[in-house]
Amino acid sequence: MSNLAPTPNAPASPAAHEAPDPSVLLAEGRLGLLRELAEIGMKLARALEPCAPTAADDEAETGRSRGRDPADAFARLSRAIRLTLALEAKTDEELRDLRAGVVRKREKEKKRTAKRREAAAAKEAQERAVKVRELVAEAAEAEIADVYEFAQVYHALHERLDEDPAYEDCGQRPVREAVERLCKDLMLSPDWSRWDGEAWIKEEGAPKRHRYSIFNQPSPRALLDDDDPDEPEAEPRPGLPQNGHDLE
After folding, report:
1. Continuous segment of H or E residues that includes residue 224
2. 33 and 92 Cβ atoms separated by less than 8 Å
3. Are residue 101 and residue 26 in the same domain, yes or no?
4. Which range marks the domain in which residue 152 is found?
5. Distance CA 96, CA 179 (A)
6. pLDDT tens for each residue of 104-131
7. CA angle 27, 29, 33 (to 5 degrees)
8. Quick one: 160 and 45 in the same domain?
9. Can you tell me the distance from the alpha carbon of 102 to that of 14, in angstroms, rounded to the nearest whole number?
C-alpha cells in the first residue's frame, strides 16, 4: 500500500478527543482499498515492462504461443488502473466534502453549546445579583427601625447596584463578598453570626411579613381603611413608601 501525501487544503480531521463520524470512517476505508488496488495494478503493470531476456521472457513467449499476449494483459491492467484512479479521486473528493460537513456540523454544535453556556452563566449572574440585593435589604431591615430611613438606604442600594461601576460584576463575585462590600458602602453593620455561608439564618417562628409592615401592630380595626373620618390625612413623603405598603 502506498503512503500518499495528504491533499493540500484538506479540512482538518476531528480532534482526537472527539468520536470519529461513522460515515467518515467508512469512506476512509473505501479510499484505502482503492489505493491498495491501484498499487497492486501498478505492480502488475511494471512486471510486464520489457527488460533483458530472462527465464521470464521464455515464459512470456510461451504464453504468447498459447494465446496470452502480454500487450493484451497490459491493456486490461492499464484500463483497470485508470478506472481505479478515477474512482479513488472521486472518493477522495467525497471524503473531503464529508469531513468538511462533519467539521461544520461540529463547529455549529460547539457554537450552540457555547451560547447555551453563556446564557446559563448570564442567568446565574443575574439571579446572584438579585440575591445579593435581597440579602443586603434584609440586613438593612434588621438594623434600621425607621421605615423612612430604611427607604433611603434601600434607594441607595439600588443606586449602587445600578449605577456604581464597582458593582458591574456583582453577579460574578461570591455572595458573601458582594454583601460585605455593599454593607460597608451603605454604612451597615450586619450581625455576621446569622450568616450561614450563603444567606442569613432565619429566626424560628419569625413572622413572614417584614418589620415595617402595617400588620405588625395589633388592631381590631381594618388597618388599610383610608376612609376613617377620625384619622387625619397625613401628607405623603415624596419618593418614600407609605406605611410600609411599598415594602410588602
Report:
1. none
2. no
3. yes
4. 123-203+238-247
5. 56
6. 677 778 888 888 888 888 899 889 999 9
7. 115
8. no
9. 8
DSSP E strands: which ranges in the chain?
none
Strand pairing partners for 200? 195
Kindly state whether residues 65 and 172 are assigned to the same domain: no
Please indicate, yes or no, whether residues 178 and 98 belong to a single structural domain of this protein.
no
3-state DSSP helix/strand/coil % of the chain, to nearest 5: 60, 0, 35
Same domain, residue pair 136 and 242: yes
Q: Which residues contact 100 (CB under 8 A, 6 or more apart)?
A: 11
Helix-then-strand count for the chain, H and E: 5, 0
User: Distance between CA atoms of 81 and 85, rounded to whole angstroms?
Assistant: 6
Q: Which of 65, 90, 122 is the last residue of a domain?
A: 122
pLDDT tens-digit series, residues 30-58: 767 777 777 777 777 677 766 545 555 55
pLDDT-based confidence at residue 158 (cuts at 50, 70, 90): very high
Q: Considering 95, 122, 149, which residue would you say is the last residue of a domain?
A: 122
Q: Do residues 196 and 102 share a domain? A: no
**29-67 as b/e: b if 16+ CB within 10 A:** eebeebbebbeebbeeeeeeeeeeeeeeeeebeeeeeee
Kindly list the distances between the CA atom of residue 243 and the CA atoms of 35, 98, 161, 212, 226, in Å, as whole numbers in the listed order.
Answer: 88, 71, 25, 8, 12
C-alpha cell at 196: 450561614
Same domain, 87 and 152: no
Largest CA distance in the chain: 136
Number of structural domains (the chain) is: 2
User: What backbone phi and psi angles, to 5 degrees, belong to 200?
Assistant: -80, 140
Q: Are 96 and 7 in contact (CB under 8 A)?
A: yes
